[in-house]
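Service request form, structural biology core

Requester: graduate student, group of Dr. S.
Request type: structure prediction, single chain
Budget code: on file
Notes: please return the result as structure tokens.

Sequence provided:
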Amino acid sequence: MANTCKATLNDVICIPYKGIGIVKAATLTVNPCDFVIQNGANSEVGQAVIQIAKA
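Core staff response, request fulfilled:
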């Protein structure tokens, strides 16, 4: 079952394709009560993102 939500521009962090590498993007801060959007959690990495976000 899929869930949907609306997010404003203030609620998301846009990571441009050029200008920031994946390693730097991975160091972005996520605080308690923040939302994490994972697009497609079928892979092991996607599953890890969900587990880390739940912790």
